[in-house]
Amino acid sequence: MEKPQSDLERDRQYCELCGKMENLLKCGRCRSSFYCSKEHQKQHWKKHKLICKEADRAQLPKQKPEQAPPSDADKAPDKSRETEQREPAERAPTPNSTAPATGDKPGEDVSANGATPNGQTGSSPQKLAVEYVVPCMSKHGICVVNSFLGAETGLGVLENVKALHKTGRFTDGQLVSQKSDSSKDIRGDKITWIEGGEAGCEKIRFLMSRMDDLIRHCNGRLGNYTINGRTKAMVACYPGNGTGYVRHVDNPNGDGRCVTCIYYLNKDWNAKEHGGLLRIFPEGKAQFADIEPEFDRLLLFWSDRRNPHEVQPAFCTRYAITVWYFDADERARAKEKYLTGAGEKGVKVELGKPTDSS
């Protein structure tokens, strides 16, 4: 059975040239391939035009096959038409989540009919989970949700985090089985752990509840996992002095963590100027995925060896909140190893408080 068009689009939301999975453009001719920029569309045109022509013939049966409409990829750039260079590609839709405690409407820039600026309508947590997050995780093992809480609530979370930072509660991020100061060469973030009930962390607690709602609606559909718990929230800050975190895996040794959820809090982030990209290297794929730590963005990915990743050097203060969700069976096995003393020291440390950040 042929998939509905919406499912096909979700399955192919990555740049055909580099594999990037955000801020995509859709080919305006065949409307079935995506690119991260006009430049990559043009570079890929020699290969894509064969497929694009076939799709174009199906849409324009009266046109002779050898006279397919010209594409911008076949033309030299015309500076006098810079404002029109967005065609033939158009922006691919990016999912938005619900507003806090207001039902099914998105939380940011909502018009009277519930549509967001990118043309999407608001989705309930269940709809977002079932129709977007689950298919995206199943296909790519990575999922980006923009405007997760909405601007107002997101700013409230940011205020909580900045206030925490001023208290001096943040300490150097640690490595599993750390024995020296060598971790500073590997990761340069400052972190603190939040349960959610602490004074001044009310908005962080709300964020955690929204994450829980989303994962709850995904549960039973994310691979073979049965999610039955999570860590505290790790609030992390890269101070902007050019530090990052070298390539690593969150859960390399089966400590129970199956899904990593990261919420970003960085207003007006410009990766070219500020750096700080999260680069993911999906196992078995030639492409990598670059995720900008943009304000009110939620990122989900598998926590195990399928997704090695790194935080590139950040040259501006960079905030993120990370929560890891546990698979019941793997967590039980990890606890058994810990209790029987069969596990390595690294597993014991991870069981107490996971120490990876992104």
Automatic annotation (TrEMBL):
Naturally occurring in which organism (per UniProt): Betta splendens
GO cellular component: cytoplasm; nucleus
Comp. bias regions, Basic and acidic residues: 54-65, 72-90
Name used for this protein in its record: hypoxia-inducible factor-proline dioxygenase
InterPro entries named in the record: HIF_prolyl_hydroxylases, Oxoglu/Fe-dep_dioxygenase_dom, Pro_4_hyd_alph, Pro_4_hyd_alph_FE2OG_OXY, Znf_MYND
Keyword Membrane set for record: no
GO molecular function, one term: hypoxia-inducible factor-proline dioxygenase activity
Assigned keywords, A-Z: Dioxygenase, Iron, Metal-binding, Nucleus, Oxidoreductase, Vitamin C, Zinc, Zinc-finger
Localization annotation: Nucleus
Main location: nucleus
Reaction it catalyzes: L-prolyl-[hypoxia-inducible factor alpha subunit] + 2-oxoglutarate + O2 = trans-4-hydroxy-L-prolyl-[hypoxia-inducible factor alpha subunit] + succinate + CO2
Biological process according to GO: cellular response to hypoxia
SUPFAM superfamilies assigned: HIT/MYND zinc finger-like
Annotated MYND-type domain residues: 15-52
Pfam families: 2OG-FeII_Oxy_3 (PF13640), zf-MYND (PF01753)
EC id: 1.14.11.29
Biased composition (Polar residues): 113-125
Location of the Fe2OG dioxygenase domain: 226-327
Cofactor(s), by name: L-ascorbate
